[in-house]
Design goal:
6% strand; Alpha-Beta Plaits; mainly alpha
């Protein structure tokens, strides 16, 4: 049910072009006109172009893209042209196009571009859009249905998450798929404040202090596959959250063996260098919305690090080293934060922070942990009430950023 490694690499390569290519707003070699469609070259932009001029040019490019795409009937040509425009437009406009035109696609073209568009939307903090895009391929690719449900929960839309999960009830009960669905049901109960129901689901999955026996019972190897490992780790961490938040001894269902100390010991033993263990050791309790998206992004296992443009993909979805809250909508609130960089060297993070402060931004440099437990430093900018305004100012100076949940 999971995407192949080449599929993950293709998603990362696409997003790397969107976020890391210098002069992102300039028309690139991926200009859709090269696909045989008519269209004039758009004006080139640079970091010195005034913000209002950039907005006008990008609005014109988006209108041009819509005009061209609306006339294309051939599925392959539509998919190729849509991807070309997505690379040449700013990331937020690319998400808009994905949302509008992915429903018109069919077959693998639809699945591939929905995977790209949904992931990009979540990286930009547009959880509703990401959920909608992933939902378009829930029947063809049930794993994307799980991602849609996660994104709806991260957006605080419990009812839509329930609808998607109901749509997935008819899918084949493959053990790993069923376990991932159970995780989402447990999250749903946590969002509704029903800790005991969430506890029962997680307990019945068998991930307790008998973790190794669970693998044996399911016929897994002593060293489970990464996907299986991830499910167990998330289930144990959720159990730890419940044991730390509720008095599980008062539950009507047996809770022996699920005490905080037992779960901490198992997580530290099984996953000594994980983000979960690091958070436990530092006494950090994440909000559910923040942690949900850590199960969506496919990049954590790739070990990719970037500098001042795009920080660690997926770091905004449960960023290690800080307690975060889920934004209520795409417009953001006064407490919104944008991540601009993620570094393995503290000096590099401090240098970027100093440069941004000189430009008038309120900046903090926060120590975090990578998936392997190594220290990293995130450069965080406190956003204005409308976080998109701050993001636009950063972009005007040549910095890409994304909203932290």
């Amino acid at each position: 049910m999971t995407r192949s490694s080449p599929g993950l690499v293709r998603i990362w390569a696409f997003l790397a072009v969107l976020f890391l290519t210098p002069g992102l707003d300039a028309q690139t070699a991926a200009d859709p006109s090269s696909n045989g469609t008519s269209g004039k070259a758009s004006p080139k932009l640079s970091s010195s172009t005034p913000y209002t001029a950039r907005v006008a040019v990008n609005e014109a490019k988006l209108a041009e893209a819509r005009t061209t795409l609306s006339t294309i009937k051939n599925n392959d040509l539509l998919a190729t042209t849509l991807e070309g425009y997505a690379v040449s437009l700013p990331a937020h406009d690319a998400v808009t196009l994905f949302r509008e035109y992915i429903p018109r696609l069919v077959d693998n073209k639809k699945i591939d571009l929905a995977s790209l568009g949904g992931t990009l939307a979540l990286m930009l903090g547009r959880y509703d859009d990401g959920a909608y895009i992933f939902r378009q391929i829930a029947q063809e690719n049930p794993e994307s249905g799980l991602k849609a449900a996660r994104a709806y929960l991260a957006a605080g839309d419990i009812e839509e998450a329930k609808v998607v999960l109901e749509l997935l009830q008819e899918q084949p009960a493959e053990p790993l798929f069923q376990e991932n669905k159970n995780l989402l049901l447990a999250w749903l109960y946590i969002f509704e404040g029903n800790g005991e129901s969430a506890f029962v689901i997680l307990r019945d999955m068998g991930f307790s202090t008998q973790g190794l026996d669970k693998n044996k019972a399911l016929g897994r190897s002593p060293s489970p596959l990464p996907e299986e490992d991830s499910v167990e780790k998330e289930a144990l961490f959720m159990l730890w959250i419940l044991a730390s938040t509720y008095d599980i001894g008062t539950f009507s269902n047996p809770s022996t063996g699920y005490e905080v100390s037992a779960l901490e010991a198992l997580l530290k033993s099984r996953y000594p260098q994980s983000v979960e263990t690091a958070m436990i050791q530092r006494g950090i309790m994440p909000t559910p919305g923040a942690w949900l998206l850590s199960g969506v992004f496919p990049f954590r296992e790739l070990g990719i690090e970037s500098s001042a443009s795009l920080s660690q993909p997926g770091a905004g979805a449960g960023t290690p080293g800080q307690a975060v809250s889920t934004p209520k909508g795409s417009s953001g609130e006064s407490s919104s934060k944008l991540q601009v960089g993620w570094f393995s060297k503290k000096d590099n993070a401090n240098n970027l922070g100093a440069s941004l402060r000189k430009s008038g931004f309120t900046v903090s440099v926060e120590e975090q942990r990578a998936q392997d437990g190594q220290a990293r430093w995130a450069v965080i900018v406190n956003a204005e009430k409308d976080w998109t305004t701050t993001q636009a100012k950063l972009k005007d100076l040549g910095y890409e950023s994304y909203l932290l949940p």
